[in-house]
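Re: [ENG-882] Designed sequences occasionally contain unexpected residues at chain ends

Forwarding the minimal case from QA. Structure tokens:
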């Protein structure tokens, strides 16, 4: 068994086309029915304002599978510690033996989450998309745009966040990272989204932020912040106005994601799954003026895919 730390993993896994293709292949296998993926195991540690999620999946035919343990303790910043942490344990799918522990401290989760957003945009947004709006100014707000640039020639970003100082700091970081990118800080969500080709919501909000009045014609929306029962980023009107609604998995969207808006009832639109869209090799978008929405809650198959990709680059060739 090998143990790899975050620095070692960061040296071989970045936001690039190879990593994107690995995660996309995981989604494709899910859409083809080639994945065993149990529900998320989640446990609250209420006295410490914490939670722990465990995700896993096996892609049939793969030599390895991963189990990810992802703690979030949200008072940690007050004592100088990060809120999020975690690791992935990689097992042999032939013997069940542990092959490696990837002590990535949540890095691989950040990467695969950003890549999932790019994959959604690749299959659902207009190819000529150039302008993105990002709601939120944290780590994923930065990574989602970096990943989006792998699949679309984004040249302008409009950012809105509740904390204006954080939005300004985000804009400075993005301009330094991407000198060719125009980054505008906007005072409200409507202004941020007015000219957007792609909107990405990246917040831990517990009440909806985006509504149908914010959506220009032809826009694609990726909502990735709602990943637990108490979170919501989209008003129901966003989904009912959309021409196409896609979830990473319907079951998770109903419990953790945006389909909670129809708890106990059937939504008045068709729900597609991202893996099935990818496996079909045909985008459900067939007109430039259509509005598309993708709800990403984070899946075990993404973790197994990115862990296998990481280990293949960490392990010396025989």
């Amino acid at each position: 068994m090998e143990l790899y730390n975050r620095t070692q993993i960061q040296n071989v896994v970045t936001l690039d086309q190879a990593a994107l293709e690995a995660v996309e292949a995981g989604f494709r296998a899910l859409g083809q029915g080639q994945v065993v993926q149990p529900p998320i195991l989640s446990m609250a540690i209420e006295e410490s304002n914490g939670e722990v999620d465990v995700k896993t999946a096996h892609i049939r035919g793969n030599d390895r599978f991963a189990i990810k343990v992802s703690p979030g303790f949200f008072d940690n910043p007050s004592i100088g510690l990060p809120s999020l942490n975690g690791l992935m344990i990689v097992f042999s799918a032939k013997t069940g033996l542990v092959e490696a522990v990837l002590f990535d401290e949540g890095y691989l989760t950040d990467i695969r989450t950003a890549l999932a957003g790019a994959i959604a945009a690749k299959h659902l947004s207009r190819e000529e998309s150039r302008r993105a709006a990002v709601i939120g100014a944290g780590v994923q707000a930065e990574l989602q745009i970096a990943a989006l640039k792998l699949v679309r020639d984004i040249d302008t970003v409009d950012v809105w966040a509740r904390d204006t100082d954080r939005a300004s700091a985000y804009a400075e970081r993005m301009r330094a990272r991407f000198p060719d990118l125009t980054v505008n800080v906007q005072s409200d969500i409507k202004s941020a989204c007015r000219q957007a080709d792609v909107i990405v919501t990246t917040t831990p909000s517990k009440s909806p932020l985006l509504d149908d009045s914010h959506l220009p014609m032809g826009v694609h929306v990726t909502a990735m912040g709602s990943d637990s029962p108490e979170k919501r980023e989209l008003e129901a009107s966003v989904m009912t106005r959309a021409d196409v609604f896609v979830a990473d998995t319907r079951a998770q969207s109903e419990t953790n994601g945006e389909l909670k808006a129809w708890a106990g009832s059937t939504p008045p639109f068709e729900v597609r799954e991202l893996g099935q869209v990818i496996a079909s090799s045909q985008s459900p978008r067939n007109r430039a003026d259509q509005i598309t929405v993708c709800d990403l809650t984070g899946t075990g198959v993404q973790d197994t895919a990115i862990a296998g990709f990481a280990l293949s680059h960490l392990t010396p060739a025989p």
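QA comment: On inspection the terminal residues look reasonable. The CA atoms of residues 19 and 309 lie 7 Å apart. Proposing we downgrade this to a documentation issue.
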